[in-house]
Amino acid sequence: MKLAERDAHLRELAGLLKATAAQGRGGLALLGGPVACGKTHLLATVCEEASAAGALVLRAVSSPAEEALPYGVLGQLLERVPLPAEVVDRVGRLAGYYDTGEPAGGLRPHDGPDHFTAQTLQEISRALLDLAARQPLLISVDDVHHADDESLRALLALARRTVAAPVLLVLTADEDPHSKPAFRNELLRLPHLRRFHVGPLSRTGVADLVRDRLGSTYEGLTDEFFQASGGNPGLLRALIEDHQVAGRVRRHGYGHAVLGQLCRWGETTREIAIALAVLGTDATPAALAELTGQPGDTVDHILEAMTAGGLLDNGAFRHPVAPRAVMADLTARQRGELHRAAARALRRLGARADAVARHLVAARHADPGAVHVLREAADLAEARGDDQVAVDCLGLALEACSAEPVRTAVRLRLFQSAWRSDDRSMPRHLGSVIEGAHAGHLEPGDAVTLVRQLLWLGRLDDASQVLAGLDSGRQPTNAKTAAVEQVHQWLSWAYPALAGRRRLAARPTAAPAALSETDPWLAQSACLADALTHARAGEVADRAVQVLGDLRMSRRSPWSEEAGLLALSVLLADGQHEETRRWCEEPRLMLSPGSAPRSRALALALKAEVSLRLGELTTAAEQAREALDLLSPDAWGVAVGLPLATLLLATARLGRFDEAAQYVTWSVPETLFRSRWGLAYLYARGHYYLATDHHRAALADFLACGDLLHSWGADVPGAVPWRTGAAEAWLRLGNHSQVKRLLYEQLGRPDAGVGHSRATALYVLAVAGPVGRRVQLLSEALELFEAAGDRYEQARVLTALSLAHHELDDRRRARMVFRRARHMAALCEAEPLCRLLLAVPEELRGGTAEPEPSQEATALTESEFRVAVLAVRGYTNREIANRLFVTASTVEQHLTRVYRKLGVKGRKELPADLEWSGTAASRSSQNAA
Questions:
Q1: What is the DSSP string of 893-923?
Q2: Residues in contact with 414: Cβ distance below 8 Å, sequence separation at least 6, in sequence order
Q3: What secondary structure does DSSP assign to 202-243, as a single string?
Q4: Sign of CA dihedral 30, 32, 36, 39
Q5: Angstrom distance (rounded) from CA 120 to CA 124
Q6: Does residue 378 surpass a pLDDT of 70?
Q7: Please, which residues have CB within 8 angstroms of residue 5's CB and are 6 or more apart in sequence?
Q8: What's the pLDDT tens digit per position in 830-857?
Q9: For the whole model, what pTM was predicted?
Q10: Residue of 480, 558, 695, 924 with fewest CB within 10 Å of its CB?
């Protein structure tokens, strides 16, 4: 590799040699700089150019291995010098050399060294001066800092005696103030000394070498190579070769180059480098000193030197291949011992638990005293979402501890980590955890968490036993009593079959009970679940938003996932569909890439339910399928009823009956029907049977919902509206008395004043009743469905309302409502409804051609058009305001003017062709402009 950024050095040294020969003055040059920055290469180039110019070159190379060999360096220099016989004899007697008999009278080291006398040095100097008189003389010593002390004294003497002779002495040395300080200080005192700094290459120098070796096409690699090499020529050469061979940085190329340079730095530097590789991100000067046993100032000095030489950047290796190469150069036993030593050193320094645990895990060894460190490290790993690190720490803690209560707690944590990541190792830990719970080895908070997870997995009997153990505990405390009460509040909503006689009365919406004494997320879950149980979602909607906001900042508790799910369910039950969807899509919440798969699956399943309630059937089906794919069937447990119910209803309403039939035959756990998810599944399956004309099967599912709710004592406001489904099934079977009984019973319930359940009951009652009352009932149902934003149910009601107007001979209104029904059904992609609409009488359909835009429609302003079109699509005033970035009051004012201009009484009479009219009018106005 050519020399880069050394031209100035070469010119000055060549000039120094020329001046020495011409002026008869001695020259002394010291090439200093960090290790492995090209001093040797520069010196070799100088020697080659000097030899080519006719100079006599005497060379010597020092090495750590020969540092204890007296006169070793001087012997190398004098090998080719023809000394007089008396000098050879004197040197041999005084310095322990013997004559080899070679023609040149060369010298070789021998045992029994002695000191050179001044006379001997004078004779050697005279012989060198005789040589210099005949031709220029260059004496070079590479790595002089490794030379033996005797040779160093001789070199100093020669430097002084040749100051007036045409001899150039060139030395190279690393910039290490602690290396041979006496020699260095004496050398620096010589007046004719010239110092040259040979440091790492600049970015420009790196670019030149990359261009020279790889061509200008690869100049884009300059920054990468400069960062990885720090300008160190040896490392840069290895990087270029790696790119030529493999197109990447290799351990056998760049990594070995790092190892080779570390060997040149000496054993102490190598120890520091190994400590750096072992400690990794935990490597501080204090930690390095503690691990290696070196003084702090020594560590600081070596780090500075390695940084100056291009090996380190900000106290760390410049490329990850370097520490891997250093570690690979050790045996497995050495690596384990070093990691154990690193863990001890960091513990002595008071480092964070996760820093200590990282080395314990790497060493696969921990003593019982380190168990608490490993558990704390697992907490920290879970907090940042690194479940695999948490599992590694807990697994090692389990191996190290012997106390059974601690082992049970650690097993529970391992089970919970597997739970979050949908790991197949869940069953391996679960049996031991249950045994420990029965033995009373779990804290109350851990026990109630285990209850939730057992219920999710469908192990209701095991959960009941753990609950029984909590209820009959020998040491009732305030925290334990509060935890038991809160878990029963939650059970009353999620698993009413287990709440049984412990069903609790509704609690006020103030702060959850014993919030400071139990897990706050459990307390919040209990509060939200209690509100859902007693149909008080509106009262806790603000608390639900607060819970979701807090969830973005902390999800460490196993109950945080449940609290988030319940908070979304509260917003959904309160009719806040867009708000629910927004929170489901919150990047830092449950759907974020870093979230646990179970949390993401739950949020996506709820998002699918929102889409279903808004009549976005295709979207709902896609989201529900995606949610199901995120978890294995076993990991879904009984909660599979949530996405499965949505998928069943969506595909049935879309008319994809073959696909829906597959979901009906889906294998679900038997314990599903002892949870609230089972009710949702039965209700959805009943509607699938209705859509496919299996009326008795549908009736059986709806009545099964009622039987379960009655057996649980949970047939309360807000429960699944099974009566309306059963009434619709009885209507198909022709039993009108049962229809009326169930519908009046549904309408007489406390929660039937407003909302989706009342609208559905009114719709069925209208269809089952006389045509004279049908318009009134359907109009009220339509208003309720419009307020809820359910486009599918709006399309159903509009279809029935159109037929009712037709039977009452109000043909104009019938056609207007029909067009709205057809438009809404098309928006929902509800194929069965679309087919039903195609089957109505031709006079009701009014032809298939698009109507011309009415003069009334063209009279609307652009703002009024936008508001009216969104109203036709079924958006509520609040949703229209959000989409158009105006206030709800402005929307109301626009709609009032729209009603007046179109001559209609309200939203339900808006013509379905308004959207087309608005588009045409908008085009006309744009063309006019």
A1: HHHHHHHHHHT-SSGGGS-TTHHHHHHHHHH
A2: 391, 394, 395, 398, 425, 429
A3: -HHHHHHHHHHHH-GGGGGGHHHHHHHHTT-HHHHHHHHHHH
A4: negative
A5: 6
A6: yes
A7: 201, 202, 204, 205, 208
A8: 999 988 888 777 766 654 444 444 555 5
A9: 0.66
A10: 924
Distance CA 306, CA 23 (A): 41
Who's near 670: CB < 8 A, 6+ residues apart? 458
Which 3 state secondary structure label does DSSP give 311? coil
Total residue count of the chain as it appears in this document: 929
Query: Between these two residues, 916 and 705, which has the higher pLDDT value?
Result: 705
Q: Rounded distance, CA 742 to CA 765, Å? A: 10
CB under 8 Å, gap of 24 or more: what pairs does 4-9 form? 4/201, 4/205, 4/206, 4/208, 4/209, 4/233, 5/201, 5/202, 5/204, 5/205, 5/208, 6/38, 6/42, 6/45, 6/198, 9/42, 9/196, 9/198
| 3-class state of residue 578 by DSSP | helix
How sure is the predictor about 30, in pLDDT bands with cuts at 50, 70 and 90? Answer: very high
State residue 358 phi and psi, 5-degree precision.
Answer: -60, -40
Helices (H), 112-220: 118-134, 149-161, 181-189, 203-214
| E strand spans, 384-455 | none
Q: Which residue has the tokens 């109000």?
A: 810
The kind and range of the H/E element at 307 are helix 296-308
pLDDT tens digits along 495-549:
888 875 454 444 554 444 444 456 888 899 999 999 988 888 889 999 999 998 8
For 711, 844, 900, 928, the CA distances from 856, given in Å and listed in that order, are: 58, 22, 10, 19
- DSSP state, 165? S
CA distance to 607, 629, 665, 677, 788, per residue, from 651 (Å): 16, 17, 14, 19, 21
Angle (CA) 766-768-774 rounded to 5° is 25
3-state secondary structure 17-55: HHHHHHHCCCEEEEEEECCCCCHHHHHHHHHHHHHHCCC
Average pLDDT estimate for 692-710? 94
How far apart, in whole angstroms, are the C-alpha atoms of residue 370 and residue 354? Answer: 12
Q: Which residues contact 490 (CB under 8 A, 6 or more apart)?
A: 452, 522, 525, 526, 529, 562
Q: Quick one: 904 exposed, middle or buried, by C-beta within 10 A (0-12, 13-18, 19+)?
A: middle
∠ CA 543-545-546, nearest 5°, is 60
CA-CA distances (angstroms) from residue 666 to 495, 601, 660, 780? 22, 18, 10, 38
